[in-house]
Structures are given as structure tokens and as C-alpha cells.
């Protein structure tokens, strides 16, 4: 606590031998952060400049990858600063802000994946109605709701947490997540109840909707011709891979913060880093390699950089 400025500081104690390996940590995480920005930005760039990718499915993919960049930017710059700092601390107000952005963008992932699932359902199961259902206005509404609803939900938890009295000023982690609740003198029943409601609204219900939607797609595709089955496999498989990956990491984040565990400090650090490493790094790889149209433009981009050809829309 800084009495002169009346600022409460939190010590981040999740780092392992940071004084000994600070420059190794910094180099590795800086490289990963640059790769995340480059990989995701490249796919978003391709979606923006090519008119044949200005379709709802690709717009949602672009929004998801942009979300990944923002999600990573919430964590990585502070990690990099901590690696080269003598003390790993953060003001409580900045901690609450990081908590808000982290869960707001994380929850948005489920909503964007839900929008993708609905888009695929209409495209495969109701192809004749697709142009009238998935209009530009529909896409805009899905995108706005995909960011607005999570922001409102998480803002309530962030505001209440900011006003809660703290009795502990050491966070067992490397960034501010649900672990901040352990710093509070008394765990608020409102935060607990509202947190469970938010978990259902922001993660479980969207995930159930996605599972239901893809189940319907699989059933209809199974009864359809080979061409429909092929289309379903090509476009739905990447989305399912992303969903499974993010769901497992989200489940870990909730459990590690809420449940007391006997994990060693090193194991906890490694597992926590996976939350912010795999998802934003592998999403663009999954979409870039598995989505046929994006992969085609990506290969052209790589070939053009070698030969000096002009871009083709």
C-alpha cells in the first residue's frame, strides 16, 4: 500500500526464478507475442483485402482473430515488463482493469464461436435462405452483441471487486484473473452468485448452443449427399478444434482460480502460461491451414513475397 498516493499495489508471486532467467523469459515471451500479432494480423489482412472473403463466416473469423490479438495484448506487455523489473507488482486498479479485459474478451470468444456455428448451420442446413438470413445487418448485430453482452456482465464483477476490501496483497499468479477473489477479506456472496450466473450466460449456454448446432449439422449432413458432407467437414472442423481448445483452457482457468490445489509453483506457472499461449497462437494456424479459401490466399501471399507479384483480390 502506497500511503502517500493512496494506491494499493498487488505483488504477483507466480513467477519462478525470474531473477535468474529474466532475459530468457523475456526473449521467449516477446517472440511468442510477435508471432501472435503477425499470424493473426496476416489472416485478418487477407480477409480485409480479398472481396471473396467478405462473407459472414470469414468476417466472424477475422473478428475472432482480432479478439485474439487484443486478448494477448491484455497480458503480454505486462508480462514482459515484469520479467525485466526488480519487483513484479501491479496497482489494484490496473489489476481490476486487466481482469475486466481478460474475461470480457475471453467471453467474447464463445459468442463469436456461437455466431460462427449459427452461420454454418444456416449455410449447410438452409442454403436457399442463407442470403436472406445472414445479411450484413445480421452480421453487425451478432458482432455488437458478441462484445457488448460479455462487457456488461464482466463490468459488474469488476466494479464490485474494485470496491471490496482486501486483506492479502500477494496474488498467486502472473496476471489478474479469478485469483483476485482470494485477496478479499470476505468472499462476497453476490460475487459468487453473480459469477456462477455469468459462467452460464457467457460460457456454458453458448457452448451448449454450439454443440446443439453442430450436432444438427452433422445429422443433416449424414443424410445428405457427399458434397454437403465434404462442405460440412471443411468448414466446421476448424471451428470445433478452436472451440475444444478454448473450452479446455477456460475450464482450467476457472478451476485453478476457484479450487485450492497442491500444484507446485513451476507447474502452476506452466499451466497458466498455456491459457495465454496456445489459443491466440494456434487459432490463425488452424484457420490459415484448414480453411480452403484463406489457405489459398495465404499461399499466394507467400509466393508473391518471393516473386514480387502484385496482389489479386
TrEMBL record:
MF terms in GO: G protein-coupled receptor activity; odorant binding; olfactory receptor activity
Keyword Transmembrane helix: yes
Top-level lineage group: Eukaryota
GO CC terms, sorted: plasma membrane
Membrane-protein topology: Multi-pass membrane protein
InterPro entries, alphabetized: GPCR1_Superfamily_Member, GPCR_Rhodpsn, GPCR_Rhodpsn_7TM, Olfact_rcpt
PROSITE patterns per UniProt: G_PROTEIN_RECEP_F1_1, G_PROTEIN_RECEP_F1_2
Keywords assigned by UniProt, alphabetized: Cell membrane, Disulfide bond, G-protein coupled receptor, Glycoprotein, Membrane, Olfaction, Receptor, Sensory transduction, Transducer, Transmembrane, Transmembrane helix
TM regions (residue ranges): 23-48, 57-76, 96-118, 139-162, 191-215, 236-257, 269-289
Cellular compartments annotated: Cell membrane
One Pfam entry name: 7tm_4
Transmembrane as UniProt keyword: yes
G-protein coupled receptors family 1 profile domain span: 39-287
Family of this protein: Belongs to the G-protein coupled receptor 1 family.
Protein name per Swiss-Prot or TrEMBL: Olfactory receptor
Source organism per UniProt: Seriola lalandi dorsalis
Amino acid at each position: 500500500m502506497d500511503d502517500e498516493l493512496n494506491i494499493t499495489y498487488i505483488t504477483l508471486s507466480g513467477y519462478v526464478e525470474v531473477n535468474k532467467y529474466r532475459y530468457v523469459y523475456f526473449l521467449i515471451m516477446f517472440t511468442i507475442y510477435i508471432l501472435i500479432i503477425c499470424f493473426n494480423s496476416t489472416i485478418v489482412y487477407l480477409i480485409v483485402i480479398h472481396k471473396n472473403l467478405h462473407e459472414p463466416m470469414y468476417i466472424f473469423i477475422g473478428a475472432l482473430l482480432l479478439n485474439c490479438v487484443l486478448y494477448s495484448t491484455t497480458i503480454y506487455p505486462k508480462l514482459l515488463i515484469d520479467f525485466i523489473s526488480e519487483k513484479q507488482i501491479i496497482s489494484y486498479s490496473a489489476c481490476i482493469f486487466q481482469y475486466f479485459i481478460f474475461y470480457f474478451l475471453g467471453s467474447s470468444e464463445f459468442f463469436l464461436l456461437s455466431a460462427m456455428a449459427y452461420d454454418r448451420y444456416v449455410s449447410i442446413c438452409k442454403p436457399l435462405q442463407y442470403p436472406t438470413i445472414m445479411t450484413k445487418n445480421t452480421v453487425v448485430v451478432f458482432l455488437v452483441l458478441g462484445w457488448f453482452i460479455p462487457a456488461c456482465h464482466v463490468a459488474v464483477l469488476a466494479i464490485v471487486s474494485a470496491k471490496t476490501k482486501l486483506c492479502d496483497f500477494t496474488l498467486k499468479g502472473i496476471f489478474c484473473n479469478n485469483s483476485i477473489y482470494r485477496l478479499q477479506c470476505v468472499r462476497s456472496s453476490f460475487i459468487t452468485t453473480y459469477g456462477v450466473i455469468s459462467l452460464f450466460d457467457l460460457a456454458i449456454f453458448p457452448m451448449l448452443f454450439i454443440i446443439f448446432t453442430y450436432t444438427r449439422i452433422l445429422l443433416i449432413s449424414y443424410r445428405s449427399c457427399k458434397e454437403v458432407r465434404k462442405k460440412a467437414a471443411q468448414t466446421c472442423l476448424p471451428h470445433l478444434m478452436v472451440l475444444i481448445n478454448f473450452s479446455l483452457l477456460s475450464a482450467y482457468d476457472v478451476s485453478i482460480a476457484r479450487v485450492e490445489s497442491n500444484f507446485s509453483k513451476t507447474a502452476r506457472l506452466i499451466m497458466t502460461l498455456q491459457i495465454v499461449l496456445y489459443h491466440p497462437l494456434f487459432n490463425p494456424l488452424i484457420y490459415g491451414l484448414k480453411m480452403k479459401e484463406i489457405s489459398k490466399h495465404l499461399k499466394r501471399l507467400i509466393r508473391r513475397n518471393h516473386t514480387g507479384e502484385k496482389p489479386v483480390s
